[in-house]
């Protein structure tokens, strides 16, 4: 099976999502599946992962270590179409997660989502309001 994953975070960020992706990659390839990952550009020298497709991104948004990926460039979309996945796995509901859904619809393949983060606990980083922001974030994620 050909599996395409989308994540808003990957190395050099080495947190739970990155480790989850690496574990899934190792397990799925050990079972004989082909796996690719679409993730934001790390603004660092390319690593030696031929299964990784980097999307241009805005670095260190709002003073954090996170990047914000830009829309999928043509070369990434073309690479995805050449790979021709059987299923797409979104690791986030936002940004590249939305791109995962759009690509799945475009290619007429299933898209699954796993939630790795309590986004409501990070809502305060948006600096746009009080507890209502956490509720709004939860509503968006669960849809």
How many beta strands in the DSSP annotation? 7
Beta strand %: 15-25%
Proportion in helices = 25-40%
Mean pLDDT: 84
Shape: globular
Q: Structural class, from secondary structure content?
A: alpha/beta
Q: Main β-sheet: number of strands, strand sense, barrel status?
A: 5 strands, parallel
Q: How are the strands of the biggest sheet laid out side by side?
A: 3-2-1-6-7
Explain how this protein is built:
The chain is built from four helices and seven strands, in the order E-H-E-E-E-E-H-E-H-E-H. The longest helix has 15 residues, at 16-30. With 143 residues, the protein is of the alpha/beta class. Helices cover 34% and strands 19% of the residues.
How are the elements arranged and paired?
Elements (H helix, E strand, L loop, with lengths): L1 E5 L9 H15 L3 E7 L11 E4 L1 E2 L9 E2 L4 H10 L3 E4 L5 H12 L3 E3 L17 H12 L1
Parallel strand pairs: 1-2, 1-6, 2-3, 6-7
Antiparallel strand pairs: 4-5
Tell me briefly what this model is.
With 143 residues, the chain is an alpha/beta fold. It is built from 4 helices and 7 strands, in the order βαββββαβαβα.
Main features:
143 residues; 4 helices; single chain; 7 strands; two-stranded antiparallel sheet; five-stranded parallel beta sheet; globular; alpha/beta
